[in-house]
Amino acid sequence: MDTSASNIQFDSEGVCNFCTKFLRTQSSVLDKSDTARRKQRDAVIDRIRHSGRRRQYDCVVGVSGGVDSSYALHLAVEYGLRPLAVHMDNNWNTEAATNNIKNLVTRLGVDLYTHVVDWACYRSLLQAFLDADVVDLELLYDNASQGVVYRQAKKHGVRHMVMGFNSATEGMRMPRGWTQFKWDLRNIRDIARLGGASTKKFPGIGIWKRLYYHKLRRMQQVRLLDCVDFNKDQALELLEKRYAYKRYEYKHYESILTRFYQGYLLPEKFGIDKRRVHASTLLMTGELTRQEALELLDRPAYDPAEINRDRKYFVKKMGWTETQLDEYLARPPRKHHEFKTDTGLWFRMEEVRAGNYGRAWRGIHNWPARQFDYS
């Protein structure tokens, strides 16, 4: 991590606040003994089985074709669950991601539901986000994929959604301004409205719908990877051996848009290299040394020839010209909170739930001047 993160602070030994917070908040997950982890896992599996008895599926697993969600699906079947695999296709999948998902569900013998988002709708929303010059283009995918998973769980009467989220590879917070609160459907709708786009066919989910699912329908997200000693390299080796899995150069590169966004648009327009957070997380969990992490960051985000191919593909798919892309890169960024947002409301709800009523009240007056780092 470096000062490209605006809210970074270093202690007297040169250790940054991102690493110290990671150790403080994630050690309870990562430092568990094998016995404690097995006890936790058995309790989770028993709870999922019990709630799903007499139903076709006892859980839903969101899959993207990446290592985390693929390994989560593998574990779900390994521990005797009856999952429905759910995939949200935003029309930017790589061929490798499609094949990874196909191989997984075929060899595991599980059903797959794929929701293909209407391309005209998604393109118009993406265009609105690009016109708005906000940082988190992936808010659209991340929000919609959650919406699809929740809807499928509701449709099949399933209470548990097994996700690929985990502390070992995703436990470090994104710096302030690098991402947007992922349940912020209000932000999506306002950016869409100002950009002349419609969210009518967009399978998004906001905080009120999420509250309905969790409180009234008693649905839960399950981080199964936090119930095992998750090691990314070992997981990749297993997936390659059993399911002919094809790995990607960096995290989340199973999508052409995500690869181009994280590897080119973010560094070029916003001065952000998300590999810093990903590498730092693996460093903190012992999967990378500091020297290996620095060497990784010295390399291009991905192959320059492939970046050029992705640039041409992006321009063609969006109906742009090279000049339009250059103009987009040259424009100054804008912040998400320049548009309507539910981030402040979510903050207040979290503070009330924690019993911090004073902080919740102060948050009303500090928003939007106060910025949050929810990812």
What are the main properties of this structure?
alpha/beta, globular, five-stranded parallel β-sheet, 375 residues, single chain, Rossmann fold, 6% strand
Describe this structure in words.
With 375 residues, the protein is of the alpha/beta class. It contains 17 helices and five strands. The longest helix is centred in the first third of the chain and has 18 residues, at 34-51.
Tell me the layout of helices and strands.
Elements (H helix, E strand, L loop, with lengths): L16 H14 L3 H18 L7 E4 L4 H12 L4 E7 L5 H14 L2 E6 L2 H14 L6 H17 L4 E3 L4 H4 L14 H10 L12 H10 L3 E3 L9 H12 L12 H15 L4 H10 L5 H9 L5 H15 L3 H9 L12 H11 L3 H10 L9
Parallel strand pairs: 1-2, 1-4, 2-3, 4-5
Structure in a nutshell:
The protein is of the alpha/beta class and 375 residues long. 54% of the residues lie in helices and 6% in strands.
Counting helices, strands and paired strands, the structural category is alpha/beta
CATH class: Alpha Beta
CATH fold annotation: Rossmann fold
How are strands sequenced across the largest beta sheet?
Answer: 3-2-1-4-5
Q: Can you tell me the overall shape?
A: globular
Low-confidence spans: 367-375
CATH architecture: 3-Layer(aba) Sandwich
Helix share of residues?
40-55%
Q: Let me know the number of strands.
A: 5
Could you say how many structural domains there are in total?
1
Distance between the termini: 17 Å
Tell me the major beta sheet. Answer: 5 strands, parallel
Mean pLDDT: 91
Oligomer: single chain
Give me the CATH superfamily.
Answer: HUPs
- Supply the number of helical segments: 17
